[in-house]
Amino acid sequence: MRALELSYHLDFTTSLHVGTGMGFTKMVDETICRAGPALGGRARLPCVPGSSVKGKVRSRCEALANSLGLRLCEKGERVCKQSPCIICRLFGSAYNPGRLRFSDALLIEPWRRFARPEFGREAETARDPFILSSVRMGNKLERATRTVEQDLLFSLEHTANRLQFGGSIQGYLDDRTFAGDALTLPVEAWLLIVGLRLVDKLGGGRSRGLGRCCIMISSLTLDGGENLADDLPAILLTDECLLGLSEYETSS
Ligand SMILES: [Zn+2]
């Protein structure tokens, strides 16, 4: 097993809606997730829950593993009890918790200053439940008839445009690398890293163009070693990565 520590930047090119499933009094039907006082100050700034990032990365990794012919659980089945597949080992299943822990992604500078007292508007912003967000109205369409349902005008809160968040992933990885090669990265790390880079959308309202994003890995260490982030492009382009995968744990 190898200990993984990974930090990433999550940059949005649009606004974002990761919902709480709750409304705000009678003003907004669907509010966005906000961080607690961990960010300092009393203003509750938008955040992206670790579970949202994890869910999206999981589905990207799953598609990737599938396209590479790795052994996976039966489609639609998330059990993988006896010998968990690579996706269940990393992200968990009904029988094991998974080895990766995703922190919530919190706003980074310069956005964070909105939570600081010296920003000078603290008294104001602490009271503002919609800081760094706005609310848009929408109609709910009845799918069958494609008509607007009666009395169903709804309001959706979404973040400001182009927010930037930072998050981290910690966990343990299987030590296996690619067959017959001395590559730096275990297969599980490789899959996770490419999966992260494949994330291009997060959250709800994607059909309305919300949640366009990309993830950049800012630091990556294995067993507390050197930061591999700068070398990743070169590592990922190594031909042996893909060649070796076919001998790793295939579905056949
Ligand atoms: Zn599985």
What does this structure look like?
The protein is an alpha+beta fold. The protein has one domain. It contains six helices and eight strands, in the order ββααββαβββαβαα. The protein has helices spanning 50-67, 86-91, 122-127, 187-197, 232-237, 239-245; strands spanning 2-12, 47-48, 100-102, 105-107, 133-142, 147-159, 164-173, 213-222. Strands 1, 2, 3, 4, 7 and 8 form a six-stranded antiparallel sheet that branches. It has a two-stranded antiparallel ribbon with strand order 5-6. Strand 5 and strand 6 form a beta hairpin. Helix 1 crosses helix 4 (187-197). The two termini are 25 Å apart. The model has no long low-confidence stretch (mean pLDDT 82). The structure holds zinc ion. Zinc ion is lined by residues 72-73, 80, 84-85, 87-88, 93.
Provide key terms for this protein:
single chain; alpha+beta; 6-stranded antiparallel sheet; two-stranded antiparallel sheet; globular; binds zinc ion
What is the fold's blueprint, element by element?
Blueprint: E1 2-12, E2 47-48, H1 50-67, H2 86-91, E3 100-102, E4 105-107, H3 122-127, E5 133-142, E6 147-159, E7 164-173, H4 187-197, E8 213-222, H5 232-237, H6 239-245
Antiparallel strand pairs: 1-7, 1-8, 2-4, 3-7, 4-7, 5-6
Helix pairs in contact: 1-4
Bound molecules: zinc ion.
